Amino acid sequence: MGTTVNGAAGRLAGKVAVVTGAGSEGDWYGTGAATAVAMAECGARVAVVDLSRPRAGATVAVIESAGGVAMPVEADVTAGEDCMRAAETAAERFGPVTVLVNNLGAAVPGSVTEGDAFDVAWAAVFLASDQSRYITAALLPVDAGATAVMPLAIRPHLA
User: Checking CA distances to 119, which of 8, 11, 76, 145 falls within 20 to 30 Å?
Assistant: First the structure.
């Protein structure tokens, strides 16, 4: 692919990454989509997992247009069966998964009526994170040498 992250071209060559919450739409890129693109730029083959297959496909199109290798996977990472299918699909197509970026976002509609905004936001983040444990369980135990990263750790990981 053309550009590199922090000069890390090829750093993830031969690695298979699963990035959840990695869909995109139009000109919009979230953390998951940007992470999937960055990992592909560094040579990883990427399973782009999103609740929406069209959004996952949009991120895959960006990766493939730049010469990267990716596949869309529609899955609800709060559902155990979807996570097992996503993990199996990635492994069947690309080989053993070596990197998992468990990136899940959640929006909670409504208003704050009790407690403060921080408490409500923290509860929503906890529930989203807790429910996304299924994708981690689907990919564990990992083989020796495998890497698991979270989105905020991606830059130091690639540096």
Answer: 76
